[in-house]
Amino acid sequence: MKHYIAASVATTLLASSAMASGLDRTGQPIGLIFEEGTYAEFSFATTDVELSGNDRTSLNPFGSPTGDVGKRFNMLSGGFKTDITEQLSLAVIFDQPWGVDVDYPTTGGSALLGGTMAQADSNALTALLRYKFNDRFSVHGGLRYQETDGEITLAGAAYNATVPLSGYNVKVGRDGAFGWVAGVAYEIPDIALRFALTYQSEIEHNFDLVETTPAGVPFIGGTTLNTNTTTKTPQSVNLDFQSGIAKDTILFGNVRWAEHSATDLVVLGALGGRDLIDIDDSFTYTIGVGRRFNQNWSASLAYIYEDADGDNLVSPLAPTHGMEAIRLGVQYQTEKMKVAAGVRYTKLGDAVAAPGGTPVANFNDNDALSLAVKVGFYF
Q1: Is 112 helix (H, G, I), strand (E, B) or coil?
Q2: Which residues of the chain fall short of a pLDDT of 50?
Q3: Cβ proximity of 273 and 266 under 8 Å
Q4: Rounded to 5 degrees, what are φ and ψ at 84?
Q5: Does residue 7 contact residue 249 with C-beta atoms inside 8 Å?
Q6: CA distance 30 to 126
Q7: Signal peptide: which range, if any (predicted)?
């Protein structure tokens, strides 16, 4: 079966290398647990984001361009899987599930948002056990430890509408917390069929904050405040499926739901309880086909569509709404190792940046290009 489904392996390569809704970067895959025998893998991905817009002329008659606010980001992932008994398997997976890199230029950029920036990074380690009742039914589950931190600056005329907040900065200290994973799978090995349903819990972080307030803020202007807040990263559900449809040909897909609306960053100091993150829940759909050409070479092609809830008014810190993507992967495999590479083109959904719900800038016709490579070893 290992060689039969080789065409599908490259399909997972770029799940973790492109921009999706809100902070979601990896889709939190757990496919490693289904590898045969003892196996280890390492992957690297890079994404170049082209993300620009224009100030709305109702607020800025010049309609100033924002400049490119999207920043290139890189990601590492890896994992190890082994069989403890004929029925029980263990996997440890490292990924970087959540992140954002947005920076509005101040020179020649938006008068309404110039200087605004957001940066967040995360690292997660998941330990999974899988128990096979027989060749067809299995359950999997385990614990997930996650660390994350970040920084946000609010700048530009859009943040001076009521209270002069332009220049506000908050540094979010690194925090680690635990969540859990649980799922079930059904397989028919003879035709490479597998359905796997996986739930990943939300993870609650208690962040220490350092807020720097602009001079014009009443009573506390020009001061530095040490505060804290509680934030959750989203719970999610993944449904992964694959099935052989012809000799050396496989159909595969994924449906992912993520509750991004649960992720709030409510700052109680200078902003008096204002939420800096406003992201809609989303469904992401993937459908594709993989083909094995011979014992060593295989390739896959997939289409991805993301449907984000709500209207297209979004936070300036994540100025996209939904997306479409095409993903191509190729793989070379032997008995002891495999090397996969892939490319993904993502058309980012149009959106309107609206701090506090007030539309200030239109973001249209943006995209991202991702490249990734993975190396895996069988022992």
Answers
A1: coil
A2: 1-12, 14-17
A3: yes
A4: -85, -45
A5: yes
A6: 9
A7: 1-20
Q: What confidence score (pLDDT) does residue 145 get?
A: 98
Distance CA 340, CA 327 (A): 13
Taking the mean position of all CA atoms in its chain, how far away is CA 87? 32
Tens of pLDDT, residues 250-304: 999 999 999 988 887 776 565 666 667 778 888 999 999 999 999 999 999 999 9
Q: What is the pLDDT of residues 7-53, one digit of tens each?
A: 444 444 544 445 556 688 999 999 999 999 999 999 999 999 999 99
- pLDDT attached to residue 3: 41
Contact between 40 and 79 under an 8 Å Cβ cutoff? The reply is yes
Provide the sign of the torsion angle of the four alpha carbons 343, 96, 278, 179, taken in this order. Answer: positive
Distance (Å, rounded) from C-alpha 304 to C-alpha 197? 19
Instruction: Decide which of 2.40.160.60, 3.40.50.720, 3.40.50.300, 2.60.120.620 is the CATH code for 6-378.
Output: 2.40.160.60
DSSP structure string for 50-64: E--EEE-TTT-TT--
* Nearest C-alpha neighbor of 346 from the set 329, 371, 314: 371
Straight-line distance from the first to the last Cα atom of the chain, in angstroms, rounded to the nearest whole number: 16
pTM more than 0.70: yes
C-alpha to C-alpha distance for 42 and 94, rounded to whole angstroms: 9
Q: Which two tokens stand for residue 305?
A: 């569509």
Cβ proximity of 276 and 152 under 8 Å? yes
